[in-house]
Amino acid sequence: MEVLFQLAIFFILLALGYLFGRRAESKHYQQIFAREDQLRHIVVLNQRFPPPGMLAHRTDMVCGNVVISVDYFKTVVASLRNLVGGNISAYESLLDRARREAVLRMQEQASLRGAETVINLKFETARVSGNAGRAIGSVEVLAYGTALIGPGK
Predict the structure, then answer these.
(1) Which CATH architecture has domain 2-149?
(2) Where in the chain are the domains?
(3) Backbone angles phi, psi at 45, to 5 degrees
(4) What is stated as this protein's family in its record (predicted)?
(5) Which among 62, 41, 66, 138 is positioned nearest to 106, based on CA atoms?
(6) What is the C-alpha separation between 109 and 104, in angstroms, rounded?
(7) What torsion, rounded to 10 degrees, do the Cα atoms 95, 99, 100, 105 define?
């Protein structure tokens, strides 16, 4: 009887993790889309050198970082996927949201400094916490680059 009770609790937690995780992820994506539209005027490039027309611009390093945790449902799905191997799609949206949020925070910092372009975009990622070192609990993404600030700003 106790095993059935524990199994029931597991499935309840799994369902709650799925429902609340999907809701939080959907809400975060809506916020990301709105902020991307607001910051679309700040061009972000991965090239190392400024475009020819921006050689006289002042430069400043800008960065944005975020730590996003994975929900219980994705942890369980990823653990099951690890048994058979292959692509762990449960983590793909986690990393996508983290990268996009980090870039947005970097663009917001560039906007506050009066920049119109960010060049030399780089990413750094790290696992912040986990389940005894075996599973991802949270992921940190740092986006950084060189802001080009126009003359007179």
Answers:
(1) 2-Layer Sandwich (3.30)
(2) 2-149
(3) -125, 150
(4) Belongs to the UPF0145 family.
(5) 62
(6) 9
(7) 140
Query: Cα 114 to the chain's mean position, in Å?
Result: 24
Match 């986690």 to its residue by tokens.
94
Calpha distance 3→9 (Å, rounded):
10
Q: What's the token pair of residue 128?
A: 């912040």
Measured over all CA atoms, what is the biggest interatomic distance in the chain, rounded to whole angstroms? Answer: 75
Single-letter amino acid, residue 96? D
Residue with tokens 């902020």: 35
Tens of pLDDT, residue by residue, the chain (153 residues): 788 888 888 888 878 878 888 898 899 999 999 999 999 999 999 999 988 888 888 999 999 999 987 776 676 776 666 677 777 777 788 889 999 999 999 999 999 999 999 999 999 998 876 655 555 678 899 999 999 998 876
Read off the amino acid at residue 16.
Answer: L
